[in-house]
Amino acid sequence: MSHHPLPSTNCPKYTKEHISFKILLSPLHKSQTQHTHTHTHFETQLIFAKMATSIFLSHPLFHFPPLSSKHHKIPTPKQTSAIIACHPSIKHTKKPFFNSHFPFPYKPRKEIWSISVGRTQIDDKDEILVGEDSAEFQLSKQKISSWVYFTGILGVVLYVLNVIWIDNSTGFGKSFIDAVSSISDSHEIVMLSLTLIFAIVHSGLASLRDKGEELIGERAFRVLFAGISLPLAVSTIVYFINHRYDGVQLWQLQSIAGLHELVWFSNFISFFFLYPSTFNLLEVAAVDKPKMHLWETGIMRITRHPQMVGQVIWCLAHTLWIGNSVAVAASVGLIGHHLFGAWNGDRRLAIRHGEAFEVVKNRTSVIPFAAIIDGRQKLPEDYYKEFIRLPYISITALTLGAYFLHPIMQAASYRLHW
To answer: CB within 8 A of 330, min separation 6: which ones?
Structure first.
């Protein structure tokens, strides 16, 4: 068996030979076979061996061989958002002594402490995950009452949105569109303005999330965030649907054979790049307490900012198909917003998760597949299983349904006259 060299880091790697029971107990064995000892002396040695074994096994500097040959995940306790395993690439600035009663810091949200968990070992083939498993959905952990609440909240939100914003007789949606349209007669400028307003509100509130949650709580801030962002998003989408063919035609490629299929497939794939937090519907609706997750598996292995990549794919596909200035304006605004969101998202995750995010950042990339190509991200042999999950199955059904419901969606949008 090959031995790992001892690196000059705060968390050295020890093989099981360094701390085996054989080494600890061999003095006892030899003393018993070569000399005659009293029963009391033997008990004293046995107690000493047990104490030494406990110290070795409980100390955070020692690692043991992995339990499995595939994924190694560190369980995330309720007190902390991520855990860092000892690894030569992590710089440790604090070295607290952990014990079985208080293994984690009191306020891990502000700073992450470096610890290791027994029976795990880092080698060149397997890496311990410091982030969370994306799109994980366990039916056994679901509560019927939670989904009943979700259904009720969803119905209330849609009703209120219709009355306060969408319905032209009672809502403010049309007045908002008219106010923005008064800026210019150009549909391109109006389209860019609507996108800019949404981007400022959406990213601005996201940047204020930490302070907002401290002031009013996670659930209340989520309601505030969604209550302001959702109407603006609806207005932007409706305006695009209604005026997507009102711009200056720049190219016309719809007659090219195979283009429709290419555009359709691109749109279909783009929805698989949704950010994994989107799948946590109970947190989105504030039924469960919303959290700022640090995802690491699934789509995150391909790109650290799947939402941005998916939006770019969607915009390029629609712009290629429509081919006019309004489509270009919408794409420029949306892509610009998501590029800023990628930078802002990294900044916020670094503040919230500290060194754990730096580990995930080093293993992933913004450009799709870049980390995989240069060897920083090593895909498991059964990587495909990270997509055979209920959220992605649901996305497949919803995406296909949205395509066939396009005529109904467009007719509903036209009736608003925005």
So the answer is: 191, 195, 240, 244, 315, 318, 319
Candidate from 78-82, 180-184, 231-235 with smallest mean pLDDT: 78-82
Tell how far CA 24 is from the center of its chain: 44
- The helix or strand, by DSSP H or E, that contains position 73, with its residue range, turns out to be strand 72-73
Is-contact 243 191, C-beta < 8 A?
yes
Helix, strand or coil for residue 257? coil
What CA–CA distances, in Å, run from 56 to 15, 16, 17, 45, 62?
Answer: 12, 11, 12, 16, 7
Amino acid making up residue 316: L
What is the number of alpha carbons within 13 Å of residue 310 lying toward its C-beta? 17
Residue 302 dihedral angles phi and psi, to the nearest 5°:
-80, -45
Assign 23 a pLDDT band (cuts: 50, 70, 90): very low
- Pair 31, 37: CB distance under 8 Å: yes
Residue with tokens 């949205």: 402
| Among 24, 106, 107, 109, CA closest to 62 | 24
Task: Give DSSP secondary structure letters for 348-384.
Answer: HHHHHHTHHHHHHHHH--SSTTHHHHTTSS---TTGG
User: For position 67, what pLDDT does the model report?
Assistant: 37
Q: What is the C-alpha to C-alpha distance for residues 358 and 354, in angstroms, rounded to an integer?
A: 7
Say what the pLDDT of residue 126 is: 52
Give the number of C-alpha atoms closer than 13 A to the C-alpha of residue 254, restricted to the C-beta side. 9
Whole-model pTM: value is: 0.70
Distance of alpha carbon 41 from alpha carbon 28, whole angstroms: 10
Q: Is residue 78 within a helix (H) or strand (E), and if so which, with residue range?
A: none
In Å, what is the CA distance from 7 to each residue of 4, 11, 125? 9, 8, 18
Distance between CA atoms of 230 and 413, rounded to whole angstroms?
16
98: nearest Cα among 117, 81, 79: 117
Q: What is the pLDDT of residues 130-151, one digit of tens each?
A: 999 999 888 888 999 999 999 9
Q: Which residues contact 376 (CB under 8 A, 6 or more apart)?
A: 362, 363, 364, 365
Residue 181 has pLDDT above 50, yes or no: yes
- Whole-angstrom distance, CA of residue 82 vs CA of residue 311: 28
- Model confidence at 128, in pLDDT bands (50, 70, 90)? confident
